Amino acid sequence: MAAAAPPPPPTPAAITLPDPTPTGQPVFARVRLGNASDVPHIHKLIHQMAVFERLSHHFSATEASLSSTLFTSPPFQSFTIFILEVSPNPFPPTIPPHPLFSPITQIAPLDLPINDPEKEAFRSHNSGGLDVVIAGFVLFFPNFSTFLGKPGFYVEDLFVRDCYRRKGFGKMLLSAVAAQAVKMGYGRVEWVVLDWNVNAIKFYEEMGAKVLQEWRICRLTGEALQAYGSAHN
Amino acid sequence: MAAAAPPPPPTPAAITLPDPTPTGQPVFARVRLGNASDVPHIHKLIHQMAVFERLSHHFSATEASLSSTLFTSPPFQSFTIFILEVSPNPFPPTIPPHPLFSPITQIAPLDLPINDPEKEAFRSHNSGGLDVVIAGFVLFFPNFSTFLGKPGFYVEDLFVRDCYRRKGFGKMLLSAVAAQAVKMGYGRVEWVVLDWNVNAIKFYEEMGAKVLQEWRICRLTGEALQAYGSAHN
Q1: Considering the entire predicted model, what is its pTM?
Q2: Do residue A220 and residue B228 have CB atoms under 8 angstroms apart?
Q3: Interchain contact B203–A (C-beta under 8 A)
Q4: Chain A residues with CB-CB distance to B175 below 8 A
């Protein structure tokens, strides 16, 4: 993870210090496994993502549809969610350990306190009385490479709420998935990006990913998919 | 799927009918669930696919790596394989039924008997004394659309052996996955295609699929992936 850039002087009149030690508020960040109690927050995050991508007309997920399809199998066997939490205080080790995953914590030294206008709506159920807010998530699941003869992870969605962007949290979430893949002996982590999103492509390439230029996704959905339902039922 | 055409006359000496009914040998085709006993055949099929795609230098799957990663969870929950079998004889209903899937059978009226030079190597373990040969497979697994709030299927590989191509068997396998998605209430079936493979793209579009032109696959693998292993372990 890249360290945060040194902060600007606190006031224009302040002496510029030679030491780049951040003087602002530290933010404690934690990546933990999501669970069924996170569904209302996950639903809100997905909706924000749809709005951000100007695709909210394609958004039809409900809390009920997410509840019936997510968290129905153990983590990493199928759809898995990592939740990003932030707090002005260190995280106590209150989460029961999972045999395959321990929460990842990190301190982000920021130059300014983050003003989160939706703090109350995203307060974490796992806060244990502390000031813990859900800032983002990543949803991933196993895929399979027949050539490698082993699984990988496919990252379906990664989202960080507006006021927490450009602080390294997206990289923290994606790195957590990559680290988990290595830990489990998996061969690949894959995801997709829009070809015109040059900033995202640059970011991913700097993380070590290759962008496959020749492959195109084929999608069978809606009525064209439903037409196959009558043939074999 | 189109309904199977009526069978040809029983002997070559029969009167030639004015309608375009094929006069050759019918081939009975069946799509069934793969299981652990299919691994040696699946391994051979994947190897043939790698050779066909001129990517055999990327092929490192072994029977052991496939055995340890496939068929470790119930069908459709994770990696799932449909096997395509062909036979000159009708299939007896010898496969125990699965609650979520019944084998799909179809009669392909061909104008010539298929000369399969690898018949012995691909003889099916489920043949029950009949002349049943494994002709192809499709490997797929659940993916997830956060916008739809429900799963879909991702088709990782579809392969039909050389002598069985251009006979509708690829479509039979892909249609079986689509039908299963509809049966399970899933929202999408997705796969990838190379952008220069115009014949495949035409075939998929005729099946009702849309080719997404703007999305690119990002892949983190090899040493670039391994580098994330040390960060959080």
Answers
A1: 0.85
A2: no
A3: no
A4: 228, 231-232
CA distance A120 to chain B (A): 24
Residue with tokens 């206008």: A117
Decide: B49 and A146 in contact? Cβ < 8 Å.
Answer: yes
Annotation marks residue A228 as catalytic: no
Is the Cβ–Cβ distance between B217 and B192 less than 8 Å? yes
Distance (Å, whole) CA A9 – CA A112: 11
Q: Which helix (H) or strand (E) holds A46?
A: helix A39-52
Q: Where are the beta strands (DSSP E) in A149-229?
A: 150-160, 188-194, 210-212, 215-221
Distances (CA, A) of A102 to A117, A188, B118: 30, 21, 50
**Helix (H/G/I), strand (E/B), else coil: A32:** strand
Decide if B147 touches A, using CB distance below 8 A.
yes
* Of the candidates A53, A48, A130, A124, the residue with the CA atom closest to the CA atom of residue A88: A130
The amino acid that residue A78 corresponds to is: S
Distance from CA of A226 to the nearest CA of B (A): 6
- What DSSP element (H or E) covers A182? helix A169-183
Residue B49 in contact with partner chain A when CB distance is under 8 A:
yes
Q: What is the mean pLDDT of each run of 10 residues along chain B (233 residues)?
A: 36 39 76 95 95 86 94 94 94 82 88 86 77 96 92 96 93 97 96 94 96 97 93 48
Nearest-angstrom CA–CA distance, B20 and B213: 40
Shortest distance, CA B23 to any CA of chain A (angstroms):
26
Q: What is the ipTM of this complex?
A: 0.85
DSSP class of residue A229?
Answer: H
